[in-house]
Specification:
160 residues, alpha/beta, 42% helix
Amino acid sequence: MGKKKKSLEETAVKALTQKKLTITTAESCTGGLLAARLINASGVSGIFDQGIITYSNQAKRKQLGVRKKSLKRFGAVSRQVAKEMAAGAAKAMNADIALSVTGIAGPDGGSKKKPVGLVYIGCYYQKKVTVKKYRFNGNRRENREKSAEQALKLLMECLG
């Protein structure tokens, strides 16, 4: 029998632990799914203190310091807001790394400009935020799961 392949979250938690880095999450459309994925991995308590779900614009402003101007100009589902969510979470939670997710999981809420499945994921690390844009085409559950998966992949990219 071969060795069981490590899950993405196990690999991420191991890498963070080895580098002695702490992580937090700021989630909107994933509603805690990303934090739950991290918490699946043994040893996570050494690097993960808390995550936050900011579903409303008011919560994004109050908890993460997302600017009202950014929400008005770009909308909650935007590169700018994902960037501010990640930076704000790192600061608010005093973490080395912060992952943010904002998007339209569906089946409602989409428009021509911002269709269902549009997601922005941010990764704050070393005072820099990397944001990636994704277009998923599953149902609500699938879009949320794919978002959490891609956030973990982005984390691994940011770690190098």
